[in-house]
Amino acid sequence: MTSAPSPSLRNATAAVVAAFVANGVMFGSWAARIPAIKEQAGLDAVHLGFALFAAGIGAILAMSAAGALAGRVGTHVMTSGTLLGCAALMPLLAIAPSFVSLFGILLVFGAFQGSMDVCMNANGLAVEQAGGRPILSRLHAAWSIGSFSGAFLTAAAIQVGVTVLGQFLVVAAGLAVTALILGRTMLPDRRHGEGPSFRRPPRRVVALGLLAFAGLMAEGSASDWGGVFVKDSLGGTAQEAAIALAAFAAAMATARLLGDHLAARWGS
Question: With bands split at pLDDT 50, 70 and 90, how would you rate the model's confidence at 2?
């Protein structure tokens, strides 16, 4: 019979769940508004693709440094700080007037979001190890629930005529408040890495990396381009594009809620 988790561990678990939800809300809100931002900046599909690619570049450039910095100041501090950075940039995404400006903003936004992704996952792993039971799949389910909520709320905002800037200002304010709370409630977690920062990965890690690449390619295609496809190719409305993204996020959440149970039963 396992003992019940302590109140401090429960609070830390709730905090890291909130971090995943906040990141998901941010992403869902942004992804559902991509068609509108594409029109505002006057982009065609090619230029939009390069602008979205900037977010990936920023994330790749920042992730290794974020892991090293988190080892010094703590994953809880980094999660809070990078969420504040994302909150500050969201309104700028809403008013980007051109390809160059959107590319630059997404480059920095991707760096903050990618860094937050690394640090909140590391903090979730620390909470999982402290509690002695798997929670990572449920944390990613929380992200998908947040993404669903962001896309669903975007559909509602479009219905009542809220502008992209108005919506992103409200979302940014909520993210900023959440970030300040997370900095005080997440599990303190500082780990100094051993050995070199970069090394040749073993074959099993390469195989896992290829598997993750395939999964993220599918997820990124649906998230970044699903709304544009519904609106531009299928002739749907902006609200229908947001609803399509919400349906995708809901399906992801449903599968991820089962992940920890399956991992506990059959192994990772």
Answer: very low
